[in-house]
Specification:
Strand order of the largest sheet: 9-8-10-11-12-13-14
Order of helices and strands: HEEHEHHHEHEHEEHEHEHEHEHEHEHHE
Structural class: alpha/beta
CATH topology of the largest domain: Rossmann fold
Radius of gyration: 21 Å
Shape: globular
Helix content: 25-40%
Number of strands: 14
Strand content: 15-25%
Distance between the termini: 29 Å
Length: about 400
């Protein structure tokens, strides 16, 4: 029997016992980690503020605004777990959320749809999502968003929640008089959302969830499982959002070459614009597969329409090239070879909810710890792996959280 690499052994030891849940996948048993953030009387050593639910000093509810870039299902999933964390802590009345994960996934529910439903729901005595305080940077003028939030902060807005790098950087630069919470930015320091990752953000009224060096850790695991000589990446838009600094660092550490193409931001609102965009992506993919790459890393935002994945991935698989994913379990179900998921959405949601609760109770956002390091999980598309001749050792299969057979 082949020896398990040291890194793969670490992965195996961090994962739970296995349970077969369906003919189409193998899953680990879910660890019950809710105690980590659900205790109602947890004190913050940095501030002395706890996470127990309180209304504002005048008895009214805390009013929340939300800024996102555009429709992106992973944002909806993470937002749901933040809300679930707030529900566990008592900030949201139990059973009052107007959706669950099944509804979000089955209807491709956007954060805008979720926010609209939240603004109409009776969530209890503590939180209110203000009906006209949702903003999409991809469709709304950033200057207008800035003007509106600056005018409303401290008047009818008490907290701003942002998703990702672009929205987080925009709101962080506003210097609002009310706190902001950002989640799921690729590198909050490099993008200027916060000043540091240890000992609080160091930026007044700003807190951002930090998952350290996700692409660096992912590529370390991918390389340990099946070393590659030349990794291909196609970057859409901002290189920081796509984790290029970590990708370069991984190449230097592991000794593989990097072939990088860039696509400038394109209009992607209408059906015609989307069709033209994916024609462009396919063209670039057909070019990069000729560059003698032996692995490809699909980074954030290149392919957001998962119905397009089979078409986009076919040129790689025709040449036996594995496609490693940076984000979202759904991409593996739809045809990606493998995903090392470095973010435990449920417990990350609890971590963000805990910080949110303390900030609403008066803690200075810039003093709270930002970093949460998730245990990795491995997700494999068995059908694709077998098709391209990927090594399917027993050690790898036994380390996977889920194995998709396509049946």
């Amino acid at each position: 029997m082949k020896k398990i690499t040291a890194l793969l052994l670490i992965l195996i030891l961090t994962l739970s016992a296995f349970a077969i849940t369906s003919c189409s996948g193998l899953k680990t048993g879910d660890a019950d980690a809710s105690a980590a953030y659900a205790a109602a009387e947890v004190e913050s050593a940095e501030t002395g503020f706890d996470n127990t639910p309180h209304a504002k000093a005048d008895g009214s509810k805390h009013r929340i605004a939300y800024v996102d870039y555009d429709e992106y299902l992973p944002a909806s999933r993470q937002l749901y777990y933040i809300l679930s964390g707030l529900e566990e802590l008592g900030w949201i009345k139990e059973g009052s959320l107007p959706f669950d994960m099944e509804k979000i996934e089955s209807s491709n529910m956007s954060t805008k749809d979720m926010y609209a439903a939240l603004s109409k729901a009776e969530l209890g005595d503590y939180l209110e999502f203000v009906g006209d305080a949702f903003y999409y940077m991809g469709y709304d003028d950033p200057d207008s968003i800035t003007k509106d939030l600056k005018a409303r902060a401290g008047k009818d807005i008490d907290l701003v929640i942002t998703f990702g790098t672009s929205a987080g950087a925009l709101v962080s630069d506003m210097g609002l008089s009310v706190p902001m919470i950002d989640f799921s930015a690729t590198d909050p320091v490099a993008s200027g959302i916060i000043n540091r990752t240890e000992g609080g953000s160091g930026k007044k009224n700003v807190w951002a969830q930090v998952e350290p060096s996700v692409p660096l850790r992912q590529l370390k695991y991918y390389y340990s499982i099946k070393p590659f000589d030349n990794l291909g990446v196609i970057i859409y838009g901002d290189e920081t959002i796509s984790g290029v600094p970590d990708i370069r660092k991984s190449a230097a550490q592991n000794g593989f070459s990097l072939t990088k193409y860039n696509i400038e931001e394109q209009p992607r609102e209408t059906e015609e614009e989307l069709a033209a965009y994916y024609d462009l992506v396919e063209k670039e993919i057909k070019k990069i597969v000729k560059e003698d790459i032996d692995a490809f890393f699909l980074t954030i935002d290149l392919v957001n329409d998962y119905d397009q994945l089979p078409r986009m991935l076919k040129p790689f698989y025709d040449k036996g090239i594995p496609v490693y994913m940076m984000d979202d379990l759904e991409t593996v179900k739809r045809g990606g070879t493998m995903l090392i998921l470095a973010s435990d959405l449920e417990n990350v949601g609890r971590f963000i909810a805990d910080a949110t609760a303390k900030i609403l109770n008066g803690a200075a956002a810039e003093t709270l710890e930002c970093t949460y390091t998730s245990s990795p999980g491995i997700y494999l598309n068995y059908k694709v792996a077998k098709q391209i001749g990927y090594p399917l050792d027993f050690e790898l299969l036994s380390a996977c959280d889920e194995i998709y057979t396509g049946e």
